[in-house]
Amino acid sequence: MQIARVALDVPLRRFFDYRVPEGERMSVADIGCRVRVPFGQRHKIGILVELAADTDIPLAQLKPIESILRELPPLPAAWFRLTKFCAAYYHAPLGQVMLSTLPAGLRALAPPKPRPLRQRIVDVPAQPAPLLTCEQEAVLTSIAAGNARAYLLHGVTGSGKTEVYLRLIERCLAVGQQSLLLVPEINLTPQLEARVMARFPNAGLVSLHSELGEAARSRNWRAALTGEARIVLGTRLAVFTPLPELGLIIVDEEHDSSFKQQDGIRYSARDLAVFRAHDSGILIVLGSATPSLESWANAQGVDGSGRYRLLSLRERAFAGACLPLLRCIDTRFDKLQDGLSGALLLAIEQRLVRAEQSLVFLNRRGYAPVLACAACGWTSHCHRCAANLVLHLADRCLRCHHCGFEARVPKLCPTCGNQDLSAFGRGTQRIEAVLAERFPQARILRVDRDSARSRKQWEVLLARIQGGETDILVGTQMLAKGHDFPKLTLVGAIAPDAALFAADWRAPERLFAQLMQVAGRAGRADRPGEVLLQTQFPEHPLYAALIRHDYPAFAAMQLKERQQAGFPPYAHQAMLRAESPRMADALGFLASARAQPVSDEDLQVIFYDPVPMRLSRRASLERAQLLVESPSRRALQRFLAHWVTQLEAIRAPSRLRWHLEVDPLEF
């Protein structure tokens, strides 16, 4: 009797044994195949991980595998090593990690009938490659000649990082290898996908992201596994794509927090990409105009002794293009008119005269953050969350940006009946309305998650911008990175100061990256660009570094502060979070977790007190957290492996849920 060990998508930290049915014979070549098995009263798709010599279960009780799905090649050994590392580092059940990386169609008991990729009749001529700048040549030469396998490419906005990526992909294709290109968000894929397709029209490019339908996702994933696709472009889950001939991984905008999964298995796709490249001995390039401070620290070794080799592109690649001029508008003296300074309004008017585009950047969607009654003090509070309902005037509704709850805009105050309700604060919809009144002749386009809820809507907006059908853009961070708008010469940033003094110690890093990225949209062609920052603190060191386009100085300042405070990357953290209908239950569970016995080996681990989260209530659940920290990553991981088993043994209220996040980004 053959015994098959199978991984299943269940929250248990073990595999399950089945017997191979009579008439079937399995070999090690079948490891990595999907199988259909009975599980309780149901049936599940699992993955064969081992052929075992024995089992702890009486042979008479072993259930048989129902079918072996061999229509696809088995998952490769490198994929197993990646998922095992992910499960171990983030302390998640291995079966859940393995199965969650597969497209839903391949986990379904009745999967859709696969269709092949669309084949071209004839070869399409490739778009010619542009001439390289001296800096691009130097970067490519360094990668080709160096013995390092991990590179951090720090390139200012518009410096031609994408062209470096394309040349590296070209080298891989020439030697018969596959390439994986990761981007943080779906709205970055259309423009990049078109550019890669134009350069390599016959290379079998596929995309993998959440906007794809299940049939398309399964088809593209299959093409990657079989080797039919030579280039995979995707968002964070694509890091798990099985690629048997992988030779290159590129992580664009590597600093972006979207690479961190915020629910389910909370992994960092960037960090897993680094492990995958190291494990397979292949090249990885992390690119950004504003690298994460962790990556920057990893590249700061003396004489190239850092974990990453640092490469730089300091000049823009476009002929005649230069970095935009940044200046601060001191709003203590230049009084705001409906949130806009006189200097910014004048600059927009000048662009309208010159038929150039302007971008007004405000990272807050909706019309106003809150609706309030001055008579009694009522505010539009979400009854499910510790947050306000945001006024969305275009949709005539109040909407919670945390749980999605919606309500009609009241005509009267619900408490006192007052008809004079006021909107406080500003969002993109309100700025759009102000600009429309101030510049009635201008074509104004708002770009945020309300106006671009799908990839198709985003592509329509993008076409309008690039086609010159708009004069003024009002947008959130959706417009801050990865886009080339040749006619855009002015960027105005509204209300950036709040992040300067936020409780989250990562806020300055995020603010600098956000402002540097959005500033980079200006002047990317042969027209000079200008960026105006409305601030009450024009002398702040963050703005001083930003005006000089001096990321290294900003990073050095931030890393010094973090080292003095003992924050990452000079410490390593994990966050235990609990949520329950009652805050007392959530805090009680965390107190029990903190009270678990600690061995002498774990004395390097520091516990902080359980506290409510900043957003203490979301979707009618009270939320609390417990931070655990250590100066040693190894010590923290050793402790967490033991602690997780203790946490699972704690008796908690039935409706309480908890999760552990390693290397948390949100506090």
UniProtKB/TrEMBL annotation:
Pfam family, any one: DEAD
Q: Which NCBIfam families match?
A: priA, PRK05580.1-4
Q: Per its UniProt record, what SUPFAM superfamilies does this chain match?
A: P-loop containing nucleoside triphosphate hydrolases
For activity, the cofactor(s) needed are: Zn(2+)
- According to UniProt, the name of this protein is Replication restart protein PriA
Q: Record's GO cellular component, any one?
A: primosome complex
What does this gene product do?
Initiates the restart of stalled replication forks, which reloads the replicative helicase on sites other than the origin of replication. Recognizes and binds to abandoned replication forks and remodels them to uncover a helicase loading site. Promotes assembly of the primosome at these replication forks.
Keywords, A to Z?
A: ATP-binding, DNA replication, DNA-binding, Helicase, Hydrolase, Isomerase, Metal-binding, Nucleotide-binding, Primosome, Zinc
Q: What positions belong to coiled-coil segments?
A: none
**Per its UniProt record, what CDD domains does this chain match?**
DEXHc_priA, SF2_C_priA
> What InterPro entries does this protein's entry cite?
DEAD/DEAH_box_helicase_dom, Helicase_ATP-bd, Helicase_C-like, P-loop_NTPase, PriA, PriA_3primeBD, PriA_3primeBD_sf, PriA_C
Nucleotide-binding listed as a keyword: yes
Q: What gene name is listed for this protein?
A: priA
Cofactor binding annotation: Binds 2 zinc ions per subunit.
Domain Helicase C-terminal residues, every copy = 408-563
Q: Which reaction does it catalyse?
A: Couples ATP hydrolysis with the unwinding of duplex DNA by translocating in the 3'-5' direction; ATP + H2O = ADP + phosphate + H(+)
Q: Where is the Helicase ATP-binding domain?
A: 142-309
- Homology family: Belongs to the helicase family. PriA subfamily.
The UniProt record gives the binding positions of Zn(2+) 1 as 373, 376, 413, 416
Q: How does it assemble?
A: Component of the replication restart primosome.
Entry's EC annotation: 5.6.2.4
